[in-house]
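Hey team,

Filing this mostly as a record. A colleague (T.K.) asked me to run one chain through the structure pipeline before their review meeting, and I want the input and output archived in the tracker in case anyone asks later how it was produced. No errors, nothing strange. Just documentation.

Input sequence:
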Amino acid sequence: MTIRNKLLAGMSILLIVMFCIAGLGMNRLTTMNRDIGASYGEMYDNVKDSQQFQIITNEIGRNLVSLMLNNPVLTQREILERLARNDQDMRKLFEDARAKYRDARQAQVTEEAIEAITRYLSYKDTIVKEVMNNRLEEAVLLRSSEGLKLQQEIQEKNDALGSYNQNSMDQVLKDGTESNRQTLHYTISLMILGLVLVLMITYWIIQSISKGLNRLSALVPRTATDTLAPIEFAEDGGRDEISQVIRLFNRLFRDLSEQRAREQEFNRKNEEEAWLKTQLNSIMLILQGRTNLKEVGERFVRQIAPLVEAVYGGFYVSDSGQPKPGMYTLVGSYAVQPGEIRSVYHLGQGLVGQCAADNRWIKLRERSAHPIRVELSPGELALGEVLIIPLAYEGNVVAVLEIGSVHPFSPRHVALLEQVTQNVGAVLNSIMGRIRVEELLRTSQILTEELQTQSEELLTQSDELRMTNEKLEEQAEALRKSEELLQQQQEELAATNEELTLKTTLLEEQVRVTKEKNIEVERANKVLEHQAVELELASRYKSEFLANMSHELRTPLNSMMILSLMLQENREGNLTEKQREYAAAIHGAGGDLLRLINDVLDLSKVEAGHMEIHVEPLEIKEIVQYVERSFMPVSVRKGVELAIRTAEALPEVINTDSQRLMQIIGNLMSNAFKFTEEGRVTFRLELSDGMWLFMIEDTGIGIPDSQQEEIFQAFRQADGTISRNFGGTGLGLSISQKLAKALGGNITVTSGVGAGSTFILWIPLIAPKAAAANRISNAQDPIFVQDESAGETGYLPDMAAPLEAAVSISAEEDNDSVTDSYLHKILIVDDDIRNVFALSVALEDAGLQVVFAENGVDALEMLNADNHGIDLVLMDIMMPRMDGYEAIRKIRRMPELSGLPIIAVTAKAMKEDQQRCMDAGASDYLTKPIDIGRLLSLLKVWLHKEE
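Output structure:
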């Protein structure tokens, strides 16, 4: 055989072998690439479905929370529509996931997740039903007992599904590697055969194929070491089968690398989001409950700077609540000493002021070889990046954060700064609001005191001018008599005419001076009248302010006291004794707050001269019973003896205002027990020189002589330091003294340090005939009004009276159901959902059916639609759209509802509010916080009256 034939035979054999290698490799690689692509596509879809399960579940949870909390941004209808869409999306996702099952294990873990989510959808429907039926408390309990567990179970099932997908992806990679290894084995075997044949042919054949074999052999160590980076290979570097194999491997490695990169990116984003949330929560946690801007600024900047790897920071707060706003003052710094950075910027001044004026970020970065230099101290610091960030609330910049780092801030740090600054602005605005309210209260008190001082000074000046005017009138009278005497002696005193003329001139000058002084007196009177008008205006403003404050405080206090009382009663028996004690403590704190509100209103009415005194007969034994009933439990609890002594041969009845008298005695007795740790408190009642004497003696700590007058001043206490052992506001004795003077009496005290105290209330003895007369006067002359019958609806107490003095009927005293004959329907009209919730629970426990409306307009629509089903209306007064006064008047204009009982409910406790409600057509009147026992008593009276 010739060399040419051998070469041709060798080339033919080589070609056949190469075609076999290429065919086998192409077939196996194409099949492997297709299988891996299909498997990874399915795995990606499964991972995506698992994530969608969790995303939709979380969205359902947020929408349910918004529904239970009555989200102010979304209406209830919008939230229900969102929940319906969530349900549809989840069930469609079930169908998609079930269509992708590959094996029994995938079907098992997916069905377990679907089963858990299906229970969660059923739980969602239950929550919606409870909320729609106004059973918010049951909905909240269901969420705590079942909802959170279901969410945790769904998370665990999703984690199991994710683990299955991860294992499946690992198995696909392992199978692909094994298939690749087998393909390489087959290819290497054929290559060895081809190499033997090549060695038998010519050198140039060996040289022509060695290059391709070397490239292909480079893939073997990459597969063994799991290195998925493609090898360097020009796409046009060859057209043979070996080059195609290399391209296929490179494509496979690229696909696997991209898939791994996507997984790593997904994990990185989850870690970033978790880090941001953790840091944001930690920052907001340290700011909660702070009321000092300096403390907030220091804590905030020292917390945020290390988190974003900053080397310095400054925190500037606006003075928007000051008389001359427009300045931003340094309240916190990081890594700098005081005085090293500027402490104040005006609006638009410097980068800090410009940032506040524009309400946008200012970013300074290093440029090439010219780094940024910021003045932080006598030297300079080169920084990679400086951020000046505005902190705004509702478009108003309340603070500016200046922060710098040696290196540019990372996207993670920038994202943290964006989220933190958005939330801190609201915290600062809340703190500033509380500071402004406190300053306004102090300013109001100072202005009131100044006006009272000016009024007293003007009254003093008026008395002096009146006395001067009387003297001038006396001088004018003397002048007139002198003129008459001069006329009678004119003939006799002709010789002294010139001297008399001179005296007349002097007298005329005195008259002129007198007239000028009279003009000055008139001017002074006009000034007094003007200042009296201003004082009256200030008093009215103060009354309106106190009425509004009463409303703002009583509205949340109403629901708190009702719900805490119901928890204390524990009718369902599901609370521990410790929890009942907590509820009792909350209810007691609410009562203390109500007494403080009433004390402030009492003090305001006394100072404004609006206090009314109702004189009526009061039996002496009722006073003794009141003292014994009210303070014997205190005596037993503290271990302090209570002694009651009454003089002999006393009248059986005293004519006075019983409510005000009881209030004074209660305050004095409470103080006696408060400041007596051991020994005895004695109550004595005597009659001396036409005066009733109520003496309260104690063996307590006593009062120094220098402070015995100060204790009767408002907001003053014998021990007013922050370290005092006894609480209180300092209003009790001040109000008691003013009430005693309104009753025509006085309170005196004798005491010594460590020797106890004796307070004596002096009340004048009023005859029955005098008690029957009505006498009306100003604050210096108290108002006496004959106490007639309380009327058809019962006695309504003064809304500003202390809690102990108000008429109260506890629920235990009225155990009978309010509805003796049939189920009554009560309409509650109130814009505060907390009050509606609290009253609904209380009334439903009493056997009543409750419906509610948020304002007067909705109430009228409900009454028009169901005018025969509603038996009584509880009408709140202060509401949007249509207030309670207008709603009551419109109801009374409807003939078919003219006899419908309407009980007005309001948190404004001024006396005129009661009359306005009754004038509008209300049947009765209650103030917040509502005494549930009294409410049930009124309901029983009015509902039975209708029957």
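Quick notes for T.K.: The first strand starts at residue 312 and ends at 318. The longest helix spans residues 411-488.
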